[in-house]
Amino acid sequence: MIDSHGVEREPPGKIGKFAGLMAASVMTLETRARGRQCDFTLRLQDLVSVEDIEQLKIAFRSKACDPKLHGTTITLTELQQGLAYPSANKMRQVLLQDYGRQDNFLITIDGKRLDVDDISGSYSEPEQDLPVVGKVRLRFSLSDDKAGLRQPGITLRVDGKSVGKPGFFGLNERDDFPQKLMRKLYGEVEADGLRDHITAGWDEPVENSELLKAVEAHIQPILRDAFEQQYRREMQLAQARLKKTIQERLARLPEHKRHFADRAIKKALDKYYGEPESKVEPIVHVLLEALERSDYRLLLEHIAEARPGDVTGIADSLNDFGLAEMAFLVQKCAARQVFFDQLDTLASESATTEAVLHKALERNLWVFGNEYSLFSSNTTLRRQIEDFLVKNYIGAKADKRPDLLLNENLNGEYLLIEFKRPSHALNRNDYSQVTDYRHELSNYMNTQIRVFLVDGSRSPDFPTSNLEPQVETRLFSQVVSTALRQIEWLLKIDGGLDVE
């Protein structure tokens, strides 16, 4: 294939040589480059008449032409009558995603060059001079295709050449922007003022460039406003449809609560944009349920209404608050009893794996005691564990990879938990391994790491003396039994409160 500079090159995405013959019986290819024009014609009936393509005789024609002429034209004639007439717009959508970002490669359809504005949807072309950077020209479209684009993003062009892969100029790093909308964005930004801030291989801009940050700060609000104008309307329509189905429940809410309900519904729609309404509706119903059952709010309003001099009224209000607090405690205890019933079932099943228990307990560390409810994991801790496991358990050792959970509390204390399957009995090797894990992880942390081994039973050779500090074993049966006793104790001190 010949590019716009007259250089032969491989096409960016390969197309079958005879793809045109699926839509037509005759295909003629004509190309001009370096002062020569070459052309040949392929007919479907000629292909059918030979057993192998190498036996096909092709009449290849060549003649001189104006050296300034270059490019390739493919002409399809005798179109297949059983197929719908080709849609130029559909062809633009397909070709743009595969070839629209290529340098020195132009495609013309019906006399119009294939470009950013061919994306089906809204198109914008703002241009502005920025201090130091100079002229920045942004051209982008927001697709109205529900499926999104295969290669979304904004391509940076400097001196006419594309730099690196398409990106979103920081918009994808914002927590308040629906990530699914990123698939709708297609465009390019021309900023020749960044020429001295591009890496040597022309792969990407220099990451810590102040000029690049200025361009990002300029582009982000433009993109956000465009998305807001196009998709907020869709979200408002979706919100209206949801309101119609839950109108009766909204009407029962106090006026000031309806404001919070609106905000909650908007957040749900933003987060789950593009999901079917059958998935979003249950989430909205749960939000309304929480607002409807806000007994705490009612009690606090009752306390606020009591006059400062009305000691008896204040005492009665506080008593009511205490009763409600105890009622919530009873409900919470009842819910935890159900949790422990399920956990006990998991622990008694021989088929239960370490991964299953890890998932069940990762966000329920309160089962080990109230002091552990403040421990939690995060992305950094999970990455440290993953890096450690990938480094030490590869090849033949991959099937011996342990199931580890690293947590941290508000005081910066660490808790390392290794889960074993309930059918496994803890032995001396388990103790040695988990302490080795701690020693290895200590190289990355400057505080002591507390260790838990969680399992179904202990073998006779498991060490019981001369243990390293802060190493504990917890058996599932002990965990469940101790936690249930605490729940029973809490229920006994509820003062005989009768809660249904």
Structure, explained:
This protein is of the alpha+beta class and 500 residues long. It has 4 domains: 19-86, no CATH class; 119-231, Ribosomal Protein S5, domain 2; 246-293, no CATH class; 344-487, no CATH class. It contains 12 helices and 18 strands. The protein has helices at 44-48, 88-99, 210-245, 247-252, 255-271, 277-292, 295-305, 311-348, 354-361, 379-392, 428-441, 476-492, and strands at residues 24-33, 36-43, 61-64, 71-79, 108-109, 112-113, 121-124, 127-130, 134-143, 153-158, 161-167, 185-190, 403-408, 414-419, 425-426, 449-455, 457-458, 471-475. A hairpin with a 2-residue loop joins strand 10 and strand 11 (161-167). Helix 5 (255-271) packs antiparallel against helix 6 (277-292), helix 7 (295-305) runs antiparallel to helix 8 and helix 8 (311-348) runs antiparallel to helix 12 (476-492). Mean pLDDT is 76; it is low at 1-15 and 496-500.
Q: How large is the radius of gyration?
A: 34 Å
Biggest sheet layout:
6 strands, mixed
Number of helices: 12
- Strand residue percentage: 15-25%
List how many beta strands DSSP finds: 18
Helix content range of the residues, please?
25-40%
H and E string? EEHEEHEEEEEEEEHHHHHHHHEEEHEEEH
Which structural class fits the helix and strand makeup? alpha+beta
| Measured distance between first and last alpha carbons | 78 Å
Mean pLDDT: 76
Domain module count? 4
Q: What low-confidence regions span 5 or more consecutive residues with pLDDT below 50?
A: 1-15, 496-500
What does the overall shape look like? elongated
